[in-house]
Amino acid sequence: MDRIAVGKVLHGLRKVKGITQEQLSEVLGVSTAAISKWENGQMYPDISYFPVLARYFNVSIDCLFGFTNDLSEQEYKDNLHECIELFKNENYEGGIEKIKSLTYLFPTNDKLRIDLSSAVIPYLALAEDRDMQRKIALKLVEICQACTDKELQVQKHLTLAHLFLFTGQYENAVADTMFMKNDEAKYGIDISNGVMLKAGVPNTIDKIDLSLERLSSQLIYELRNKISYLQKKNDLKEALSLLYKQLALVELLELDHNYYFMLYMNISYLCCQLGKMEEAQKAIANFIHLYHEEPISNEILYRVCKKGFQSAEFGKVKGTPEFKALEAIFRRK
Q: Quick one: 135 and 153 in the same domain?
């Protein structure tokens, strides 16, 4: 049987109210050590203290035992939306008070505190008043740090990493991203490089370049796999459309020029299949222009392209000036 969550509820209520264990001990006339033991679950308060605690925190005794009714799905969405709207309209003080009141009413609902905090981060990022931004971020940090649910720890640390950036506590942000790296399979967002860049960690830009190179290559190859799938399904128009997008991506990411050779060859091939002869000739012309600027350096790629252009589909453009120029290139080597 699960233990009654009095300690967790008490800790949450105290944090939301913004008082220390010492201050609460003075209210109740007990030692600080007793408050600490209550919150840590080592012992329960005497039953005589529950009415006093309920009045002080303005909650029911059921709430102190963790028996409060949880939010319905619609209530959950409505409250989340209300908090977002407050931040969206730059009412940051009103927004944080709303979030605090919800965590006050539902102190054992860790998912609520994390969802509320993460949802308003994009709007807090737009705050022009940096002092206000830092003040609100610190309050959200305190709310998030109270989350102990093991299933929410990755999301908690992701949220904290973003919030620490607003407060300038870059070392804490880096520490939280390091925690996330231990569970990448569960939560696939890695913001560690960005955090370390802000924190001034040496050689971070080299790590970013390496990440871009690795991710770019993986993306290009996955697109190639999808294009092959579309060709097998005989969806040639969609395959051609995706090839053009892949071409734009290679240009945007400034990848190795050898990518272009395969792309121009595949584009011209599909254009021949679809009867788009002018587009096919243009792709071949681009291949030739690129080759004259910087010839294919990879021997295997050269052979693949040479063999590829020997496909029967290119018979439709074989008599064109562009294809004759292409054949001349392959004859010279």
A: yes
Per-residue pLDDT of the chain (333 residues; tens, 9 = 90+): 345 578 877 887 787 778 899 999 998 999 999 999 988 888 888 888 888 888 888 877 777 776 555 678 888 999 999 999 999 999 999 999 999 888 877 777 889 999 999 999 989 988 889 899 999 999 999 999 888 888 888 888 888 888 888 887 766 666 665 555 544 434 445 566 666 676 677 787 887 788 788 788 888 888 989 999 999 999 999 999 999 999 999 998 888 888 999 999 999 999 999 999 999 999 999 999 999 999 988 888 888 899 999 999 999 999 999 999 999 988 876
Among 82, 141, 150, 84, smallest CA distance to 111 is for: 150
Q: Is 159:147 a contact under the CB 8 Å cutoff?
A: no
Cα(195)–Cα(172) distance, rounded to whole angstroms?
Answer: 10
Whether residue 185 lies inside any domain: the answer is: yes
**CATH number, residue 241:** 1.25.40
Closest CA to 263 of 231, 293, 305: 305
If asked whether residues 94 and 46 sit together in one domain, one would say: no
Contact between residue 112 and residue 71 where contact means Cβ atoms under 8 Å apart: yes
CATH label of the domain that carries residue 112:
1.25.40.10
Task: Report the 3 state secondary structure along 194-255.
Answer: HHHHHHCCCCHHHHHHHHHHHHHHHHHHHHHHHHHHHHHCCCHHHHHHHHHHHHHHHHHCCC
Residues 229 and 142 grouped into a single domain: no
Q: Is residue 153 part of a domain?
A: yes
Radius of gyration of the chain measured on its C-alpha atoms = 31
Decide which of 24, 45, 64 is a domain's last residue: 64
Q: Which tokens go with 128?
A: 């022009």
Domain that holds residue 224: 206-332
**257: in domain:** yes
DSSP structure class, residue 151? G
Of the residues 151, 183, 199, which one is the last residue of a structural domain?
Answer: 199
210 and 326 co-located in one domain? yes
